[in-house]
Amino acid sequence: MSTPSVAGLVTALREQGFVVARGFASPDEVQALRAAAVHDLERAAAPLEYEADLRYPGAPASREADGGMTVRRLLDAYGRGPAFRRWATNPAIAQVLRAYYDGRQPVLSTVHHNCVMTKHPMYGSLTGWHQDVRYWSFSDSDLVSCWLALGPEQPHNGGLFFLPRSHVADYEPRRFDAQKFFRDDLPENQQEIANAVCPDLEPGDVVFFHCRTLHAAQQNRSGQVKLSLVHTYHPEGCQPLPDSRSASRPGVPLA
Q: What residue range is the signal peptide (predicted)?
């Protein structure tokens, strides 16, 4: 399957809330990024987030439990080295996002996402349906994430599921639980979840998705760790709210 033009990517992103760009990263880029991620993962190079800290379904109960030191995220990808910085500010990403933002300059958030997502067999937890914007604080909510597959991604190894057009839906608060997860016990939510899409990804494929697009991931039932790299961007003029976590570190404008 070929990747649509920039205009085609932007149109699909606006209409569906997500779009897949096939072969967006070159094999050399994927190899360099994967090698850097594996290097840091094997050495547990800080900063990290552990599965046990989040306590999502399927995660170890504590760091002292079996699998308790299973890494969920390698944080601050942008600060981990030149390969990560090059990818986060890649001109091809900037081109898509500048078109999406109608010519405005995209800015990388160094606070939100900006990480290598790891999904381990056995101790990698599942992630319930949610919108990323739930804990973010900006002057508007038109943020877009870029998810790069560093290996194959399918439902069985924890690939992402998306709900098409959920980014423009006006959901009542009661349809989310106290942690702002989309409740899968409500019949009206179940009807929407039945329409979920999980695109199969190959190394180098990218998913651009809106911060209000509902998405989820199952546990990894394969025998290999799944690695993905994700960054989030906002347009110039969209500012993090003062004194919020979103404002705790400066963003990086894309040239």
A: none
